[in-house]
Amino acid sequence: MSDAPSSSVEFRREGGSTNDPPEGCRSRSGSSSSSGSLVGEAEEDYCENSPWVFIPEPMFTKIFLYLEPRDMLNAGQTCKRWNKLSRDDYIWRKYFQREFNVDTNIGLKPGAESWRSEFKRLTDNVPMVMTDVLTNHSHQVLHVSFSHNGKMFATCSKDGFVIVWNSAYPSTIRDSYDMRKLSWKYTQFSQFNQSDTLLLVSGVHFGSPHSTSGEIAVFTVQNGFRLRCRVTNRPYDIFGTWFSDQHLLSGDLHWLAHLVSSSILWLNKANQEVDSEHTPIRNQLYKFYNRNASSIRAIMVANCPWLGDEKKDEEGAEGPSTSDAAGQKPTTEDEEDDRRIGNPLSHYQMNQDQAMDNMYRAGRVFIPDIDLDFPYVPLENNDYASPIHYLDEYRREYEDSYYESSDDCLDDDDDQEDDDMSETEDLDNLCPKYLIFSTGSKTYTPHQIGFKRISSVNFPRRVDPGPSLKERIALRDRQRELENETPPMEANWANYEAVADRFDKVDKLIDLHGHIIGMGLSPDHRYLYVNSRPWPKNYVIRNPLEPPPIAQEIDIHVIDLMTLKKVGTMLRAHKAYTPNTECFFIFLDVCDNYVASGAEDMHAYLWDRYYGVCLTKYQHDDVVNSVAFNPRDNEMLVTTSDDYEIKIWRSLSQAKKLGIQPVGKAIEFRKLKSRTTTCH
User: Where does each WD repeat begin and end (predicted)?
Assistant: First the structure.
């Protein structure tokens, strides 16, 4: 074992060192060596008559369960027998369930080596230590996003700046741009493309207080931070997203009648075409019908390779049903099935864990010792955040099977050499996708999640110039003659059935019966996590312009994109206080092992994805708007807040490895139970 501070706990990996006393005993002098026959005889007599020799292992186990983990590890250094008992996985399972408040019905995470290794992971490998506080923004920091290679992250703020940071410790500014030069009021969202060569930045234009006008700007990240193109985006809370490495999605809103509008989603090239006026730079992708003053918001794209399996799609029962946004009865989520705490890992991560598990069994991976030096701060019961509850049926199905994830569509290779890929090649052989967005049908506030399957797209190579001027004049005159003979009928936009053929249909709607304030995808794009502030149960909306009151607590819902069904719920998870008319986005993020979210109670929260328990909360002095994990290092988390600060949190293990002096520490949730009840 490597050298460790005197206060740390050492493990003997093979049941103690070679000069340990005989198993089950220890000399009075505390030494395992004898300097003479008299001392040796005394030791032998002590070993044979020691009452510890005759205590059965179940009794030892019960005694150890009365100890704290540190005390048991210290006791394990006494002799070989105690060392072996201190590694018993039954004991570590009890410790794990007690310390982290894990439901006793949940088994060991698939791919994990042991309960002891899981105890170490939740002790040493959770982002817990505050290593950086960045104060370069002069206003509220609204959003943070990481590059796919984990080397950069970008922040957006109400000061109008977008700043790109180097993620290596200590974090430094790489590039920045003042978007107020382009008549922006502030920046609100950013996203790196898959090759990390371009950065999409979304923001709000200057205008009237109720203006919904926004814009998307694309910057080059490599070889200088240069503005590459600008795209209109309305309403601004569509945000925009990358569709592929060289194409992005934006939106537009057109009012058709009172409370009725259409949302148009555009597929845009990520560069401004200047070679020819006949080369198109954008193409209409979808046109959706909106009723009751609602609109499409917060669009995102998920890569779903399982959609390419036509046989699975034809089974029908589990797949999405095709219906329109106005006429479909949304899926209700007040299911009464038996639920069990716990959240399945991404399938890709499970496969990785299984491979690691095989390596552990082959003896090729070294597990470092558990280090319990860093103290934790237990919280009172009323401070404990809710766990994730999962459908029992889903957990059984999940743990018994593995599925090939979307990683075939998510190439994170650092040595990528396709940066100069043409726009045409970029859209060829697309992985099947879901377009995901929030919308509404009962009121203007978003309370539904919409899904639209994308199998392929057609982007024109050349703009059709259309008829000549002379031909257009002749066509206009003919149309006027026809109108005089038979006046055209005005479309009844309020009647969706009468105009349904003019719009694209939504494949699936899931109604969450609450105000949706944030969404995030798991790394493999299999699960969608949604922040929602629930409405009162059975509330009847009589006026679409007067949405229901919303709860202060934020629920987190988990949707499986393979079945388009809700598979998990975390009720009353964290806090928000703004009313429904002023409700804003609280971004959340998901990595392989954890889920994190901001909140309005001046904290961010983190849960373990599999066990579902809340592990920690991160302090700020105002609303925490956004969180983001480093995709290449789950032990690094960034939080942004209305207190103008960006805080970077790393695990205790990483902090020690990098030799970082912590600036502060988050609050751990270790809800200790009564030792007496634990030992029964």
Answer: 134-166, 617-649
What kind and span of H or E run contains 251? Answer: strand 247-257
Q: Which residues contact 520 (CB under 8 A, 6 or more apart)?
A: 528, 529, 587, 588, 589, 590
Q: Please tell me the distance from the alpha carbon of residue 347 to that of residue 560, in angstroms, as a whole number.
A: 12
pLDDT tens by residue, 597-646: 999 899 999 999 999 899 999 999 999 999 999 999 999 999 999 999 99
DSSP assignments along 344-376, one per residue: PPPHHHHHHHHHHHHHHHTT--PPPPP---S--
CA dist 119 and 345 (Å) reads: 17
* Cis previous bond, 235, omega within 30: yes
Is the CB of residue 293 less than 8 Å from the CB of residue 444? yes
Where do we find the tokens 């105009």?
499
Written as six digits, the tokens of 473 are 């004049």
Task: Find tokens 């072996």 and name the residue.
Answer: 84
Residue 409, SS3 per DSSP: helix
3-state SS, 109-122, equals: CCCCCCHHHHHHHH
Query: What is this structure's pTM?
Result: 0.79
Q: How far apart are CA 165 and CA 203, in angstroms?
A: 19
* Pairing mode of beta strands 614-619, 241-242: unpaired
Q: Phi and psi of 322, rounded to 5°? A: -85, 120
Give the Cα separation of 550 and 643 in Å (integer). Answer: 25
